[in-house]
Structures are given as structure tokens and as C-alpha cells.
Amino acid sequence: MKSKVYITLFLCLIFTLLTTIDVEHNRVLIKKKLKLEPENFTLAETGLYEANELEDYQYLFFTNDFSEVKGYNGKTNVAVFIDSTFAIKELKIVETEDTRNYVRRVKSKRFLNQFKQFGYNQKVKIVTGATITSDAVVASIRKSIEKIKTMN
Fold this sequence. Notes:
alpha+beta, 5 strands, five-stranded antiparallel β-sheet
């Protein structure tokens, strides 16, 4: 009986370690990819980063912290800036395991700006020639926001 308890506790510990937000990695992304100071963000219990001194943004999150959606070759991590109503203010692809040519198409302002213009839950035009990658980006943003909403 004790061995079952220990195994259960061990599995819970492993699950917790695997699902914990990699704060140090995210600090590097904020600094190097977003060109912002990590000190301007405070990690909240929900996994959102609260923007301390940025007027245009209230929160920041990374889709890899909330979603496991994979594209053509793997996951694409998107930094998403939102306000208190979950309206997307800005987004940027910061990491990807997908093919460079597909991601280049998806990084276009035309595709990404659809989220700011229409909202995260509205229909967006998928990128021709990068369908799987752009579908994955859309799904990861939507799933992340839905998960965050349930936590608030």
C-alpha cells in the first residue's frame, strides 16, 4: 500500500515539474526576443506576466506555457500581449520547431494582425502554403486564452 502512495506522489511531483512555467527561459525571451526588460514584468499565480510599467499592455503570456499544440514539425511559441478584457494588443513568434519557410509566411503582419483586428476567437484567414503551422498558431493562442480565462 505504501509503495502505491509513493508512486502516486512521485508521479504528481513529475507532473508538477513538467508543467511548471520556465521562468528563467521566459525572462531570456522577454529580453532577447521582445527587447523588453524582464524587470518590467511580474509573474502572477495564473501564469500571466503583469506588465508593471508598460502603458500599451497589461499582461503577457507565452503560448507554450498553456498549450501543447504542434504544427508541421513541432510547437511554435507565441508571446501574446493582452489587456484585462483578453483583447490581443500585440503578438510575436519567439520560438519555433517548424520549418523556417513556413514560419516566415506565418510571421507576416497580415496574418498576425488579424488577431488584433478581429479578436482571438474570430475566424482568421490561414496562410496558404503554411496551413498546418498557421492552424497551430491559431489553436495555441485560442487554447491558451481559454485556459487563462478559466484560471481567473
